[in-house]
Amino acid sequence: MYNLLKGKRGIIFGALDSNSIAWKVAESAHAEGATFVLTNAPIAMRMGEINELAEKTGSEIIPADVTKLEDIENLIEKSVEILGGKIDFVLHSIGMSVNVRKKIHYTDNNYDFTHKGFDISALSFHKVMQVLYKKDAMAEWGSIVALTYMAAQRVFPDYNDMADNKAYLESIARSFGYFFGRDHKVRVNTISQSPTATTAGNGVKGFSGFINYAEKMSPLGNATAQECADYTITLFSDLTKKVTLQNLFHDGGFSNMGVSNEIMAAFEDQE
Ligand code: NAI
């Protein structure tokens, strides 16, 4: 390890179980010398797995439903108190679509479900940043990262309304990132990650086809959850101070491919 986050304080949203990308980020941030608060929706904590992560990383857990402003306000106030100063890094690693969960087709979306998923997956990023901004809780040269997927730019039919949520999320990163950069020297970016076998990932219809196709299309293969954590750590470190308002693809090269030899081979004998 490189001590890249020595002395830095953070808040990590979204560690559900050991497959979660946020879980790997927490383990890596701890190994790099950071202290942080872990948070998740109260309902997600019933499973209790997050306690194991908290113990391992010497962290406190503060429950917060990201759709509720009062939960976010409490989280941020307590985090500053517990960590003993302003926050250097924040990971938003949250996504949920009720339409996806209930297997409702995109052309038949239920708008109450659409609203709920949008609130959790996209608007929550604005809410978190607005509370951090108003409370002046971010340290100068701090870094805020949210996780996203390329369905924000290109069509992936079964990604459903999450595609729209991700487009909105990425836009918030730019819009809020301007004000955070101008006023507090804080950077805001999204990482657009390869398909990854997690609870959220596996919930997408046809996920195994999705992940195998991306693997064969990408010159470096799919990026794993641990590799995503490694990349996230660089964005939290002082080595990336002037990177902001970016959507950064972390996908083994997938996003710039047209077709690969392996995918071509599967179609060559077809008329
Ligand atoms: P995950 O299922 O482990 O994490 C999603 C988290 O969102 C869970 O911890 C869940 O409890 C939390 N959450 C849901 N509702 C919440 C609420 N109301 N308040 C607070 N937290 C809430 O799955 P994963 O894959 O680690 O997801 C993390 C992020 O990575 C998500 O934004 C996801 O869309 C994104 N991503 C995932 C990819 C994949 O293939 N797994 C690919 C690209 C991006």
Automatic annotation (TrEMBL):
GO biological process: fatty acid biosynthetic process
Annotated pathway: Lipid metabolism; fatty acid biosynthesis
Claim: Disulfide bond is one of the keywords in the record: no
Molecular function, one GO term: enoyl-[acyl-carrier-protein] reductase (NADH) activity
Domain of life: Bacteria
Residues where NAD(+) binds: G14, S20, I21, D65, V66, I94, K166
Catalytic activity: a 2,3-saturated acyl-[ACP] + NAD(+) = a (2E)-enoyl-[ACP] + NADH + H(+)
Active site: Y149 (proton acceptor), Y159 (proton acceptor)
Keywords: Fatty acid biosynthesis, Fatty acid metabolism, Lipid biosynthesis, Lipid metabolism, NAD, Oxidoreductase
EC id: 1.3.1.9
InterPro entries: Enoyl-ACP_Rdtase_NADH, NAD(P)-bd_dom_sf, SDR_fam
Enzyme class: oxidoreductase
SUPFAM superfamilies per record: NAD(P)-binding Rossmann-fold domains
Family of the protein in this entry: Belongs to the short-chain dehydrogenases/reductases (SDR) family. FabI subfamily.
Protein name: Enoyl-[acyl-carrier-protein] reductase [NADH]
